Amino acid sequence: MKSFFSKPYNVGRVTVYFLGKELIALYRGKRKTRLKKFRYADFPSRKTFVVAACAVALLAAAVLSVPRVRDAQPIRITDDEAEKARILSSSETEYVEPTDEKRVEIKIHRVKKGETLSKIAKTYGVSMETICGSNNLNSYDLVNVGMTLKIPTRDGIIHTLKSGEQVARVVQKYRVPLEKVLAANEIRNVDFYRPNQQLFIPDAKPQNLIRGFLWPTITKRAVTCGYGWRNHPIFNHRHFHKGLDIYCQYDWVRSTKYGKVTYTGWLGGYGRTVVVSHPGGWKSLYGHLSRISVRNGQYVKQGQIIGRGGNTGNSTGPHLHFELINNGDSKNPYRLLK
Q1: Quick check: do 78-95+210-335 and 106-202 share a fold?
Q2: Which 8-state DSSP code applies to residue 70?
Q3: Candidates 3.30.230.10, 3.40.47.10, 3.10.20.30, 3.10.350.10; correct CATH number of 106-202?
Q4: Distance from C-alpha of 123 to C-alpha of 295, rounded to nearest angstrom
Q5: Number of helices and strands (H, E) in the chain?
Q6: CA–CA dist 89, 102 (Å, integer)
C-alpha cells in the first residue's frame, strides 16, 4: 500500500487522519491532547482496517454527540512554541561553567531487576561511558541483575593500578593533567601509591571530539524533514519547522557538543525533551525521545549519550527532532553539523 496523507476529519474533539499504513485518531481535550495510532499491519486485511477506522469515528461521534464536520479547521500549536521559547530564553537554561569539583567518591551499586545502564547513569548523574569504562563493560545494554558496579561521583574512569605501574605513566596515557588527577584523589606524593589501589582519572575523554557540532544520532544519517516552512504532518497547517527531523528509530542519541543539561522532561508536542546549553550562547534541543539518560545540572561531553530516539508527543513515527539555537535565534542545523 502506498503511503499518503488524507485530509483530516473532525468528529467533535477527535480528528481522524487516514495514512497509507496507519490511522491516527487525535483527541484534543481542554488540558491534554491524546494520540492513538492503528497500524495497517495489525489488521488481517485492508477491509477490516477501513472498518476499524470508521468505527473509531462513529464511536467518537456517539460519545461526544457532535455532528461530523468534513474539513478540519487548522489546529494551532502556538502553546507548545510559546512554552519552548520560554524555556530556551529562561536564565535556568543558560550555560554556567562548572565549579571546582570536590574529592571524588566511588560508590558501589548492585543492579536490581528492571534497571538499565541508562537509568543507573541518570540516577548518579554520570555518563554511561563512565560506568562502562570503570567496570570494563563492552555494551550499553548488557547489565545483569546482581552485577556489582563501581560508580564515581563525577565523570571519568576508575583505573586499578597494577604492580610496578606508575601514576605518572597512567595519567600520560589518558592525556589528563597530573595536577588534576592528584587533586581528585588527594594524592600528595605519586611515589607512595600501592598496587591494586584505585585511581580516578577525571575527564578521561576530551570534552569535544571534533570542532563544531557532532551529528546527534549514531546510526544512519537520514533527514526526514528539513529546516524551514512545511505543512504539519499531523495538524495539516503551514508552519516554520525550526529543526531537523532525523531518522533514528529508538537508537541512542548523543550530545552534539560539550555543555550543561539545563532541561529534561515533557514539552507538549515535542514529547520527552532534553536541552543542553553550550559555551558561546548555543543551545541544542532533542525532542520526541523515548528515554532520557541524563538529569538537570549534569555536564555532558560531546558525543555522550543523553537518551534514545522515540515517538513521544505529536509524532507520526519514531525519530529525533533536533534544534540548534544561538542567543535565542534558531539556526539550520544541517549547515552546522559535522
Answers
A1: no
A2: S
A3: 3.10.350.10
A4: 8
A5: 6, 22
A6: 31
- H or E segment to which residue 121 belongs: helix 117-124
Tell me which residue has cell 550555560. Answer: 95
Residue 179, Cα to own-chain centre: how many angstroms?
34
- Kindly report the pTM of this predicted structure: 0.62
The domains of the chain are located at 9-69, 78-95+210-335, 106-202
- What is the pLDDT tens value at each position of the chain, 338 positions in all? 344 445 566 666 677 666 656 667 776 665 556 667 666 666 666 666 666 666 665 555 444 443 333 333 344 455 788 889 899 999 999 999 877 666 778 899 999 998 998 899 999 988 888 898 888 886 676 788 999 999 988 888 888 888 778 888 888 877 788 888 888 877 777 666 777 788 888 877 656 667 789 999 987 788 988 898 888 777 777 888 899 999 988 999 999 998 999 999 999 889 999 999 999 899 999 999 999 999 999 999 899 999 999 999 888 889 999 999 999 999 999 999 97
**CA 142 to chain CA centroid, nearest Å:** 20
Reduced to 3 states (helix: H, G, I; strand: E, B; else coil), residue 276 is strand
What amino acid occupies position 12? G
Tell me which amino acid residue 214 is.
Answer: L
Answer for the pair 36, 55: CB distance below 8 angstroms, yes or no: no
Task: Tell me which CATH homologous superfamily contains domain 78-95+210-335.
Answer: Glucose Permease (Domain IIA) (2.70.70.10)
What sign does the CA torsion over 262, 264, 269, 270 have?
positive
Cell of 50: 477501513
Report the largest interatomic distance among the alpha carbons of the chain, rounded to a whole angstrom: 84
Distances from the Cα of 119 to the Cα of 3, 97, 240, angstroms: 37, 26, 35
Q: Kindly state the helix (H) or strand (E) to which residue 63 belongs, with its residue range.
A: helix 46-64
Cα–Cα–Cα angle for 29, 32, 35, rounded to 5 degrees: 85
